[in-house]
Automatic annotation (TrEMBL), chain A:
Gene Ontology molecular function terms on file: electron transfer activity; heme binding; metal ion binding; oxidoreductase activity, acting on diphenols and related substances as donors, oxygen as acceptor
Segments forming a coiled coil: none
Predominant location category: membrane
Highest taxon, organism lineage: Bacteria
Annotated localization: Cell membrane
One of the record's GO cellular component terms: cytochrome complex
Species in which this protein is naturally found: Cytobacillus firmus
Keywords carried by this UniProt record: Cell membrane, Electron transport, Heme, Iron, Membrane, Metal-binding, Transmembrane, Transmembrane helix, Transport
Protein name: Cytochrome bd-I ubiquinol oxidase subunit 1 apoprotein
GO biological process, one term: aerobic electron transport chain
Automatic annotation (TrEMBL), chain B:
This protein's name: Cytochrome bd-I ubiquinol oxidase subunit 2 apoprotein
Top-rank taxon: Bacteria
Compartments where found: Cell membrane
Keyword annotations of the record: Cell membrane, Membrane, Transmembrane, Transmembrane helix
TM spans (from-to): 6-34, 55-74, 80-98, 118-142, 162-186, 198-218, 234-253, 260-279, 299-323
Source organism (scientific name): Cytobacillus firmus
Key word Transmembrane present: yes
One cellular component (GO) term of this entry: plasma membrane
Predominant location: membrane
Claim: Glycoprotein is one of the keywords in the record: no
Length: 448, 341
């Protein structure tokens, strides 16, 4: 296998691993917060339903965490196995957040074990809830540290290269790159948003499938409210991300927006197709790109004409970008209508078709996460470390990457099927109504 | 003490932690499967499940910590070991992934089938076998540096007696460590039949563990004379390790002080592990890479060490809490409490 093939298969395998891992990782970052909110509401309102909600989410969460842990281990090792040259360089400059991530995860794993096995151990429910705080913190900090590494790949700093040697290394400066604030905020808020919509989707699905229990209605309203808050946050952060890109990675923004010529008062291209270098069927919003990039309708936005041909990312990232943004807007609108509709007791929000839209929102949010990461990664090409190291120079020289690709593809298939079977079985065997009756009986038994 | 030595000692300590906790875990899975096979599952399963359930995730983190840490402290290892280990490490990761997820699936998801129990048990033997190959490779003689890059000679690796001795040692140690620990644990749970059975396993596996360990030292004389002579300089450490080993076997044999027996075992492995590590110094990979030319810059090293100390400040109390609530909690160990979500 020539080196070109090694590069190609290394890219495919990394893409596969990340695309699979990110589903479980996103849920793993977001769900602890949801569990915490549900348990908190339950304690405050003295409402058994919310407590049970937290408990049932926890059970499902354990399964997704397990898959997240093992695929996380896989990507952690694959970084060194597939991109040894990159990791040799990165190890020197950005090893600190990678190292701290293991601590964050360690912390999370320990307290998750404790939390899981101490339901009902404490007289005071609040004490038990306190154990969840380190889980949520650990999960979110794992995301923060890993995103810091990704931000570094987009806007490397904190070192100099003199005669091919790394000098003046500053690990702290390398962590706090210009890309870091918007990226970290975006990853966190979308993780919470997606988790909320995935849980809402499950609640809506139960309601559609015949269960009319108030438990599911409470779950649905709670998660849609949380989803709404974080989708608004995501939109605000998205605006800052646009400004970051315009300033530090103009080629990524220009490629995503099909902005070819540098100009003032640049319009924003929505959708459309690219035909022989010509944009067709796009919706053109005048001045919008200048506003997005610089908050000024007349500001100049750098176009792709400023960059050499071999440093421009693939132009198909426009579709990924549009997909991500469209789903984000759609979910914001959907959750806003649902929350307002419930407030004003409008009938249509409890109708079948509307609930189906909420069910659809779960998978859509996951698709948005995938599109977002593909956009982030492909949009950085041809660089693995922007301006410093090209992806093709970073890959392994090993000739067996294609075999490993098959091996891991098989693994992910098994994990996906396994986790889906286990999750559906877990909740089908023990429906909410059953569990509520059981708990009722248990309590009476204790009283007697 | 130089930064290089602090770095490698920290990593080595965590690898030691992984060897102990993972051995308990792997061995437990194997004994569980074996007892199912022999129709004695009723004796062991309960005790093994009680131990494994709250801690399984933590085991994995020790390993992640090690390989993330080694790339941090010694970035050149990413190039050398990253290139060489693509296949063996990928296989180990796939096995770890299947094992970890199926543990969660069966325990929390009620996917109980004999098939999975066997697969789970066997994977626990294949993982240490595939991971131990890294130690063999580090002895040198299997890697060549060519113009196209580094190459691993699989044929030489798999026909070398050293490889297979290290594999056998890893398996025997896994089963020995696990049996001794579980004997203690079962005894704490006042579970007499389980204690007796595990005690028997512990005594059986003590023999191959010590024989292969000695055999490997002898084999190194031919394979890597330099390393061998450094090992011989540290003969007294191996002597101490052997005395600790004898102590464990004696206590288990006499059915006395199982907790102390496990303590001695941990001491035996700690001393031997560090004696091996010290004699390997300064090489990370014979003869290409030493801890000195593979080391990161000073700024990063200091940052990592500070992060490590801060991290430990967070971790040690949490680990203590975990152990107190489950491992050292009488009610939990004896099965009087089950507060699973």
């Amino acid at each position: 296998m020539g080196n070109e093939e090694s590069v190609f298969f290394s890219r495919v395998l990394t893409e596969l691993t990340l695309s699979f891992h990110i589903i479980y990782a996103t849920i793993g970052v977001g769900i602890p917060l949801m569990i915490m909110i549900a348990q908190w509401v339950g304690i405050k309102k003295q409402d058994e339903h919310y407590i049970l909600l937290a408990r049932r989410w926890t059970r499902g969460f354990v399964i997704t965490v397990a898959v997240g842990v093992v695929t996380g281990t896989a990507i952690g090792l694959q970084l060194s196995l597939l991109w040894p040259n990159f990791m040799e360089l990165a190890g020197n400059v950005i090893a600190l957040p990678l190292f701290m991530e293991t601590f964050a995860f360690f912390f999370e794993a320990i307290f998750l074990g404790i939390y899981l096995y101490t339901w009902d151990r404490f007289e005071n429910q609040k004490k038990h809830m306190l154990l969840l705080i380190p889980v949520a913190i650990g999960a979110s900090f794992s995301a923060i540290f890993i995103t810091i590494v990704n931000a570094f790949m987009n806007a490397p700093q904190g070192f100099d290269i003199v005669n091919g040697q790394l000098v003046n290394i500053n690990p702290i400066l390398a962590m706090f790159t210009p890309a870091m604030p918007t990226k970290v905020a975006h990853v966190l808020s979308t993780a919470y948003m997606t988790s909320a919509f995935v849980l809402a989707s499950i609640g809506a699905f139960r309601l559609l499938k015949g269960s009319n229990h108030i438990y599911h209605k409470k779950a649905l309203l709670l998660t849609m409210k949380i989803g709404l808050i974080f989708s608004i946050a995501t939109a605000v952060i998205g605006d800052f991300s646009g400004k970051y890109l315009a300033e530090y990675q103009p080629e990524k923004l220009a490629a995503a927006e099909w902005h070819f010529e540098t100009e003032e008062g640049a319009p924003l291209m929505l959708y459309g197709v690219l035909d022989d270098g010509e944009v067709k069927y796009a919706i053109k919003i005048p001045y919008a790109l200048s506003i997005l990039a610089h908050s000024n309708p007349n500001a100049e936005v750098i176009g792709l004409d400023q960059f050499p041909e071999d440093e421009i990312p693939p132009l198909y990232i426009h579709y990924l970008f549009d997909l991500m943004v469209t789903i984000g807007m759609w979910m914001t609108a959907l959750s806003l209508i649902y929350v307002l509709g419930t407030w004003f007791k409008m009938r249509f929000v409890t109708s079948k078709w509307f609930r189906w839209l909420i069910v659809l929102g779960g998978p859509l949010s996951i698709i948005a996460i995938e599109a977002g990461w593909w956009f982030a990664e492909v949009g950085r090409q041809p660089w693995i470390l922007r301006g410093i190291m090209r992806t093709e120079d970073a890959a392994t020289s090993s000739g067996q990457v294609d075999l490993m690709l098959l091996l891991f593809a098989g693994l992910y298939l098994v994990l996906a099927i396994g986790s889906i079977i286990v999750l559906t079985r877990m909740f089908r065997k023990n429906p909410v109504e059953q569990e509520l009756t059981d708990r009722e009986l248990e309590k009476e038994g204790e009283l007697r | 003490m130089t930064l290089e030595i602090i770095g490698i000692s920290v990593l080595w300590l965590f690898l030691f932690g992984y060897v102990i906790v993972a051995s308990i875990d792997f061995g437990a899975g194997f004994f569980n499967a074996y007892s199912l096979f022999r129709g004695k599952q009723h004796i062991l399963t309960r005790i093994i499940q009680r131990y494994l359930s709250p801690v399984w995730e933590v085991t994995n983190v020790f390993l992640v910590f090690f390989f993330v840490g080694i790339v941090g402290f010694f970035p050149k290892t990413a190039y050398y070991y990253g290139t060489i280990l693509l296949v063996p490490a990928s296989i180990a990761v796939v096995l770890l992934a299947i094992r970890g997820s199926y543990y969660a699936f069966t325990t929390y998801g009620g996917l109980r089938q004999k098939r999975w129990t066997y697969l789970y048990g066997l994977s626990g033997l294949f993982i240490p076998a595939s991971l131990s190959i890294v130690l063999t490779i580090s002895e040198g003689g299997f890697v060549s540096e060519k113009s196209a890059g580094l190459e691993l000679d699989y044929w030489a690796l798999f026909t070398s007696p050293l490889t297979w001795s290290i594999v056998v040692l890893s398996l025997a140690s896994v089963l020995y460590i696990s049996a001794v620990f579980l004997t203690w644990y079962a005894n704490k749970a006042n579970d007499e039949p389980a204690t007796e059975l595990l005690r028997k396993y512990a005594l059986i596996w003590a023999v191959p563990a010590i024989v292969t360990a000695t055999g490997i030292i002898v084999e190194l004389r031919d394979h890597n004379p330099e390393h061998f002579s450094r090992l011989m300089d540290l003969w007294w450490l191996f002597g101490i390790s052997f005395i600790l080993f004898a102590g464990t076997v004696y206590l288990i044999w006499k059915r006395k002080l199982y907790g102390l027996a496990f303590g001695l075992l941990a001491g035996q492995f700690l001393v031997a592990f560090f004696a091996y590590g010290v004699s390997h110094y300064p090489y990370l990979l014979y003869p290409y890479l030493t801890i000195y030319d593979g080391f990161t810059n000073e700024a990063m090293a200091i940052a990592l060490i500070i992060a490590f100390i801060a991290g430990l400040g967070l971790l040690l109390p949490s680990l203590y809490l975990l152990l107190r609530l489950f491992l050292f909690n009488k009610d939990y160990v004896q099965g009087n409490r089950d507060d699973h979500a």
